[in-house]
Amino acid sequence: MKNDHDAAKSPSPRLRKAGLGAALLALPVAAWGLLGCDRDDANVGGAAALPGAGGYDDPRLREVDPELVTWTQAAHLDVGLQNPVKLAWQPGTGNLLVVGDQALRILDRDGGLIRQVALPAVPTALAATSDRIYVALKDRLMILDAQGKPLTTWPSLGSDSHITSIALSGEDVWLADAGRRVVARCDSGGVVGLEIGRPDESRALVGLQVPSPHLDVAAASDGTIWIANPGMHRLEGWSREGVLQRYWGEAGASIQRFFGCCNPADFSILADGRFVTAEKSLPRVKVYSAQGEFESVVATPAMLGENRAGTDVTVDDQGRVLLLDPATRSIRVFGSRGGGAS
Question: What is the dihedral of CA 118, 145, 219, 304, to 10 degrees?
Fold first, then answer.
């Protein structure tokens, strides 16, 4: 598996996709639901790695070597929402936050309800610090205090915007906008200072390829901004100034790679710099080293069942992996067999 490409030494390849792949990558945001683009086409992005594969329902794709599964489910917490969308761990409080159904639910570590807060629109993304909660309402950001009291709402990023992820780094708020296929760096007042993701041939940048409403962003402890480029089947590390520094990941059916038209759909970063990735359609949750080398499996397709829409993933202060499972409307908590982070 090719990993940890130095962007300065190995320029990003030009995107070359044909047929259904090109059509998916060109879809406007309004067409996602109509054409069912959350249902990956197995022949876009790696089915050839499994000879004779008929699609992501091929039973061979669901087989995972048990020796690779080094995490165990420690808890299964009901979230109390019909359509849970996003999950976040709130540092400094021990609380779990979940949004969906035009509501924010603040839960304790064991899943007990602390309070529920009504939201003015359907939420699409979520992040938190110890004293602030950030909720995206499709094209704009709402900020609440730690108890869920609304403080302010930023102006819309545009009618085509569809915010699917939020990352916090110092004074910066990074918004992953799957609708416009960019990641915006905003200051504390909501002013956009930079947008990452547009193709730039002069810098050999292919741009963010986002065939479905899944675009994730996370900030590493060293300040690197990591963005999932799902149509390219990789994670990209960017500087605050918008310079692509490195990337890793490959398309393929094997457990080490990312399968389907557009994965990974979600990811998070452990305290030691390792990555936890989640794939949709063929649901697989895995751990990679800080350099992008495959290490282990958290949850297999057999564990997660039929999950076309994806599984939001985050990590807590104990090094546990938390999955928001929309099929069971629950948070599934995984710890390594060695306890805490593996």
Answer: -30
